[in-house]
From TrEMBL:
Organism: Streptomyces gardneri
Keyword Isomerase in annotation: no
Domain named AB hydrolase-1: residues: 25-131
Name of the featured protein: Hydrolase
Source species taxonomy: Bacteria, Bacillati, Actinomycetota, Actinomycetes, Kitasatosporales
Keyword set, alphabetical order: Hydrolase
Short name of one Pfam family: Abhydrolase_1
GO biological process terms held by the UniProt record: glycerolipid catabolic process
Family annotation (InterPro entries): AB_hydrolase, AB_hydrolase_1, AB_hydrolase_fold
MF (Gene Ontology): triacylglycerol lipase activity
Length: 278
């Protein structure tokens, strides 16, 4: 694995940690969930053979520190952070962007707020549940997760959250986790440390975000909506499928499920390259 060039960037209310590898046109990778730049360790080196690959820890995660640790979080501000990174690393050319999960939500806002900076966006399972016909049900889930987090703590809240993401009618216990690659296993400790912030600040803010669908309609030629091939029926799959149908674009399927980037890195990276070339 190649050591990346490390940088820091002052933004409104935070200092971002970012990493750059390779050379060529810029590819910005926006992590989701409780992950940071390290989420992309499994694919960044391979992608760097073709692109200047940049990724970062979102504000409040891992090495990207908040000036006020109690500050409320917003999709617009996280998207502006991505914009600032693009301005620093590719000031003269629009970039390719990939975002996963909550990172894909920030990426959708980036596309609508700064379309001139994005050549193509692949948004993998953005849980923008507000676009769904049963959005009110999912608002109830978010409220239950927050109530459980504040009264019972992190792990009970995560259990409520995980149950709400499962396929409708699926009452089975979670399957045994796919054995993670060594790099991914080593990241678990940092990811666990980010979970309280993710559950308490990111989940309620990001999952109540409603994208500007009329703007996405106008930009649909540079937006690719993607899902895990094993995610069909799960909650994070549904908004991407709904938006692809609404926009009249092809829904692309990637290896694995919601976390296919981690469980199937080689296949995921190859699929990512193919979709960006298409």
């Amino acid at each position: 694995m190649t050591d990346p060039t490390i940088g820091t960037l002052r933004v409104n209310g935070a200092t971002l940690h970012y990493e750059v590898r390779g050379q060529g046109p810029l590819l910005l990778l926006i992590p989701g969930g409780a992950g940071g730049a390290a989420s992309f360790d499994g694919i960044a080196d391979d992608m760097a053979a073709e692109y200047t690959v940049a990724t970062y820890d979102p504000r409040g995660m891992s090495r990207s520190t908040l000036d006020d640790p109690e500050a409320e979080q917003s999709v617009a501000e996280h998207a502006d952070d991505a914009f600032r990174i693009l301005e620093r690393l590719s000031p003269d050319e629009p970039a390719r962007v990939f975002g996963s999960s909550s990172g894909a939500i920030a990426a959708l806002h980036l596309l609508t707020a700064h379309p001139e900076r994005v050549q193509r966006l692949i948004a993998h399972e953005p849980p923008v549940v507000e676009v769904l016909p049963d959005a009110s049900e999912h608002r109830g889930l978010i409220a239950r997760v927050q109530a459980t987090f504040h009264t019972e703590g992190l792990m009970p809240a995560m259990a409520v959250f995980a149950a709400g993401l499962k396929k409708a009618g699926d009452t089975t216990e979670p399957k045994a986790e796919t054995k993670l690659p060594p790099q991914a296993a080593a990241r678990v400790e940092r990811t666990m440390a980010n979970l309280p912030y993710f559950v308490g600040r990111i989940v309620p803010s990001f999952m109540s975000y409603a994208p500007a669908i009329h703007q996405l309609e106008a930009l649909s030629d540079r937006l690719v909506l993607a899902c895990g091939q094993d995610s069909r029926g799960e909650l994070p799959y549904r908004p991407a499928a709904f938006l692809a149908e609404h926009l009249g674009t092809e829904l692309r399927h990637f290896p694995g499920g919601h976390t296919g980037l981690t469980t199937h890195p080689a296949e995921f990276g190859e699929r990512l390259r193919r979709v960006f070339r298409a």
